[in-house]
Amino acid sequence: MKRLLLVCLLLLSLPARAVEPDEMLSDPALEARARALSQVVRCVVCQNESIDSSGAGIARDLRRLIRERLLAGDSDQQVLDYLVVRYGSFVLLEPPLEPATWLLWAASPLVLLLGSIGLVVMLRRRRALLPAAPLNADEQQRLARLLDGEAP
Amino acid sequence: MAQRAFGRRLLFVLPVLIFVAAAVAFWLGLAGDRRPDSIPSALLDKPAPAFDLPAVEGLGVPGLKTADLAGQVTVVNLWASWCLPCKVEHPLLVALSREAGVRLVGIDYKDKPADARAFLAGLGNPFAAVGADADGRAGIEWGISGVPETFILDAAGVVRFRWVGPLNEVDLRDKILPLLRSLQ
Amino acid sequence: MIPEFGHYALVLAMVVALLQGSLPLWGAARGDQRLIAVARPAALLQLLLILLAFAALTWSHVVSDFTVANVVANSHSTKPLLYKISGVWGNHEGSLVLWVLILAIFGAAVALFGGNLPASLRARVIGVQGLIALGFLAFLVFTSNPFLRLELPPPDGNDLNPLLQDPGLAFHPPLLYLGYVGFSLVFAFAVAALLEGKVDAAWARWVRPWTLAAWTALTGGIALGSWWAYYELGWGGWWFWDPVENVSLIPWLCGTALLHSALVVEKRDALKVWTVLLAILAFSASLIGTFVVRSGVLTSVHAFAVDPERGVFILVLLFIAIGGSLVLFALRAPALKGGGIFAPVSREGGLLLNNLLLATAAATVFVGTLYPLFLELATGEKVSVGPPFFDKTFVPLAIPLLLVMGLGPFLPWKRADLGALLPRLALAGLGLVAAALVTALLLGGPVMAVVFLGLAAYLFLAALSELAERIRLFRGPWGESWNRLRGLPRAALGTTLAHAGLALAIAGMTASSAFKVESVIFAAPGETLSVADYQIRFEGVDRRQGPNYTADSATLTVLADGTEIATLRPERRLYSVQQRLTTEAAIRTTGLGDLYTVLGEPQPDGRWTLRLYWEPLVPWIWIGALLMATGGVVSLSDRRLRVGVARRRQAVAAE
Q1: Scanning A16, C46, C106, C325, which has its CA 20 to 30 A from the CA of A88?
Q2: Does C288 touch chain B (CB under 8 A)?
Q3: Complex ipTM, two decimals?
Q4: What are the φ/ψ torsions at residue C107 (nearest 5 degrees)?
Q5: Positive or negative, the Cα torsion across C182, C186, C189, C190?
Q6: A20 close to C (CB below 8 A)
Q7: Which among C343, C388, C600 has the least Cβ separation from residue A130?
Q8: In this predicted structure, what is the pLDDT of residue C622?
Q9: CA of B26, closest CA in chain C: separation in Å?
Q10: Cβ–Cβ gap B36/C297 under 8 Å
Q11: Most distant CA pair in chain C: distance in Å?
């Protein structure tokens, strides 16, 4: 069944292939915003693609929708919110910062922090064992005499 | 000294623990009825989205708009004539429409009126109303990723359930009908 | 007959793997020389058997034997010969045969070239290899038999996915597997060391060449995959943070960290526990990657075979291999005695910082890739983690990493005087500032471009400065510099090449992301369009017939300043058997960038959509990767790496 559904969606996907000239807005600033937004919106029927680069019919519809909202004067965040209301946070390629994703966003800095602390602790322990400075000439002579069995 | 040794030991066990957590997640992730590519509806427990669709030309049943969805438990089915799974699930919809107290309405997604009429003429029309969504905008309002999809709304017009893909007898019997009864 | 023969060979190989994985390990634990001696012949026999199986499968594909289900599913009589062969590993079952083949090759390599390893260690390494092979062969034999026959052979096959019928993609899996499976050997060394209870400089010396070999292959494999995606998928992107791409990056990051930390074990007898852990993690990451690709647990454009039943099998394999080795680690690693003492600012310190950053990077990619799965299982909520997330978390880690990479080769062991070192980086620092200023003021680039182009220039110059110092370039006669270059330890030359290569690749990545120019228009034949500094005259579209496809082929004449400089022919192909449409971009590569052209949809009014891109410095990515791989090969050719314990003192004296 899932395969048949995919077939339906594939049929949707043949005509368009990523952004088409007739979708583009005439205002370059708005169009640039539309492209930037499209690149962070997930194509909901594809395997891990943005709507900017997807050929699916829904992707095209969503691209058009974004441009319509921009023309209507929405801010970037408002456009994204509009999509999230309908599709959930799943539709954003950048996970929003919310309690459910705190662990995700914190992971990298946390690992870095813990690793750095571990590193510093380890280095401190080793430094305690390190001689303070290389021996000077005098000390070297003393060492040589000691090694030869003579009095230092 | 013993404390530090214990702390050190703990550190060595950490990789295994992390791996076990990941492995458990993988195991659960392989569980049978999980579908990596279906997304839950953002509309659940929210009122039906705003839309207003004209009737399908020549079909004989009225169009569909948001206001129509309140007042009675309603099943909304998004379908299209070019969609094979829709054809497969259609007899189940016809059977469902005969259940007491169930109002079944449809949204014809990105379709041509003539094709839609032919589809329903051939397989039967279970819908009390069908909205023609020629450009797919209403589909986006419902947050669909393709057709068919089916939504169940309670008498207040709040979305309570979403089903992605064609209906089948087992899930109809085990999930959908009980839910419909409980809502009435 | 031949498929049956191949099947039989596989089953036999599995039995041999069982023996190889049990007897030598038992013998090493007991000190029984006879059992230990089983290792070498077992490894060689296994290689022979799997070679036969692989040959049988390849033969079936090449002659288009449609009684074999695998051939039917993935081949077609009209498919060109190269893709008949590469189609052998272009599917789940066949790729597993390739996997165990490479596993057997590495095992046999240790059997043949590991003469200077102590017998018990060698036996243990081969034994662990045997166990891994056992797992994968069992997977093959019991769930993924490539030699399944069909009672009624169809007249022809289903053909290979047209996207895979491509020279780049033909070689991508073998290189990738050489990398993944190469790490299995390092893993075997780590487990063997834990079993022996001993990790010393000699161990590190043996581990390093294998790690280098695996790392070099993996670098090549990832770069090849990225390059393929770039020219095949039609909009000039080369990395998408797709789960399957990510699971190839994690072993690479671990492997890079391992390369560097093994150095510290070798030279200073320190960081043993961490290095052993990395060796286990690198291969574990490879195994997890195998799982993710073949089980369907994550969505991806790459997903091989979406089959939960197979997923369960691999998961059990994972549990035994990774879980077992990590338990062994928890039990045995605390007993490993650390050695060398060093100051924080020293080469060891630099390598530690390198490892910290690489490990954090690997953890970031790991968490980002698996988080959607974990969250969904925990709360049912679905989120997407895509490129924007990784841009914000992974990319910034590169900044301190590149800085320390430039400084690292200058740092002496044990203790360094930073004040005395920094002037030696003067040229590199100048390069950083110059590149940053040019990017910011002349090119008007975004902040990230300014930072990373600056860092790329810094790293490139730092690597060259260090080499120049070593060979006393400009400080003495040319002849002396030349002699010094020739006498240079190959590993040092390899380092320079690898670091410089990375710098080039980063410059390419940054420039092509930040300064890409795109032009998407409807064009009628005869029209001239422009992108960047080029004019493109659209001559028209013709129909053309290929071996197993028909194509719409556009002719584009490229002009610069009015003079014709090239003709490009982007195509849209329809592969007849699978009825799939692919676009073939036409690319003109120069040292400074790519002119990338794609033929899009035909419009009802006779016009066509044309997508034209100018991608500055994109070839530098591939050249940089090639340079890195070359650095790996050059390092591998260092004679010192093949010297065993007995001759270590001589080699040390020669440094």
Answers
A1: A16
A2: yes
A3: 0.84
A4: -60, -45
A5: negative
A6: yes
A7: C343
A8: 95
A9: 7
A10: yes
A11: 82
Q: What local confidence, expressed as pLDDT, does residue B155 receive?
A: 87
Which helix (DSSP H) or strand (DSSP E) does residue C447 occupy? helix C447-470
- In angstroms, the CA B146 to CA B35 distance is 15
A65 touches chain B (CB under 8 A): yes
Chain B residue with CA closest to A62: the answer is B140
Please say if the pLDDT value at position C546 is more than 50: yes
CA distance B121 to B104: 17
CB-based contact C211:C186 (threshold 8 Å)? yes
Helix (H) or strand (E) run with residue B77 in it: strand B74-79
Token pair for C451: 């930072």
Q: How many residues does chain B have?
A: 184
**Helix, strand, or coil here: C540?**
strand
CA distance A28 to chain B (A): 25
pLDDT in tens, C548-558: 889 999 999 99
C-facing residues of A in 27-66 (CB < 8 A) are 39-40, 42, 46-50, 53
Return mean pLDDT, chain C. Answer: 88
Number of residues that this document lists for chain C: 655
pLDDT at A11 > cutoff 90? no
Sequence-ordered alpha helix ranges (H) in C114-166: 119-143
Chain segment A54-97, per-residue pLDDT in tens: 888 889 999 999 999 999 999 999 999 999 999 988 899 999 99
pLDDT of C477 reads 83
Q: How confident is the model at residue A16 (pLDDT cuts 50, 70, 90)?
A: very low
Rounded to a whole number of angstroms, the distance from the CA of C528 to the nearest CA of chain A is 16
**A85/B42 Cβ within 8 A:** yes
Q: Tell me the pLDDT band of C162, cut-offs 50, 70 and 90.
A: confident
Token look-up 């010192």 returns: C640
Sort out which chain A residues have CB atoms less than 8 A from B39's CB and list them: 44, 87-88, 90
Option in B13, B23, B34 nearest C318 (CB): B23
Q: Across the interface, which of B8, B16, B25 has its CB nearest the CB of C327?
A: B16
Please tell me the distance in Å from A11's CA to the nearest CA on chain B: 9
The CA-atom distances, in angstroms, between B75 and each of A39, B105, B151 are 35, 6, 6
Rounded Cα distance, B65 and B50, in Å: 8
**Cα C106 versus chain centre, distance:** 17
Which of C395, C399, C392 is CA-nearest to residue C459? C399
Q: How far apart are CA C78 and CA C84, in angstroms?
A: 9
What pLDDT, on the 0 to 100 scale, is given for residue A129? 64
What is the reported pLDDT for C163? 75
In angstroms, what separates the C-alpha of B167 from chain A's closest C-alpha? 10
Q: Is the peptide bond before B148 cis (omega within 30 degrees of 0)?
A: yes
Q: Which of A101, A108, A127 sits opposite C383 (nearest CB)?
A: A101
Tokens at C419, concatenated: 């004040």
Average pLDDT over residues A17-29: 82
C-alpha to C-alpha distance for C303 and A47, rounded to whole angstroms: 9
